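Posting this for the archive.
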Amino acid sequence: MHRYFLSLICLIILPLTAAAKTLQMVTDDYPPYSYKKNGSISGICMDVIQNVFGEHDYDFNVLLYPFARAYVTARDGENIFQFCVARTPEREELFQWIGPVGPSYEGLVALRKRADISIDADSDMSAHTIGTVIEDVVDQHLSLIQEELGLMLDKASGYRQNIRKLMAGRIDIWAGNIFVAFQLAEELGYDPEDLRVVYTFPDLHKDFYLVTGLKSDPDLVKDLTRIFDSYVEKGGYEEMKKRFIKSRAFGFSEQ
């Protein structure tokens, strides 16, 4: 009888223990960093997270949202994690930061045939319609100087939508991560060689992070940070970043 009750207690406790190890995550459609493939979330950021936490008994429940929705969900929720999020001064106090999970290279991309588009300084951007994604790091950056420079920002909810608008001539410039622009163009059936980088934002060339809101359990965040720090200290992240940048070099076509 005692064995029966002991076994019953174990059956009750074990699922609860397993559930406590499942991380609730959100991300957006952001290839090659994060995207849905064969019903699962794939991409370089997901690969990093799996490699880092795979040996530490953490599982993942990942949902794919538009970026703005994922951003607000993680920021305002409790124990909800988002990737891939660029770290900026404006965002610093809104989240608890864990990572990094991938390299960020932000800029402006135009059609190669648009020889009339030449941008050497922020002030040159005002002559063109720029497509941004709501709450994306470049959208936030340009929104801060929009009124001062008279920028024409065409805001959308997704990156694929903006690539289609660029190719159709509905916007002059695609704003965001350079790798994403070239990857999406290829996935949507366009020739990446038809694109060129016309401007970059070096101050935004940092890393993407796994983040969670200020309401999240600090002990959980501390444990995840410890695991990530170990991964970085052992050189795992730098090795991944070198391989990734080498494989995506076409994204830095000559302006």
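The helical segments are 2-20, 44-53, 67-76, 137-149, 159-167, 178-187, 218-233, 236-247. The two ends are 77 Å apart (CA to CA).
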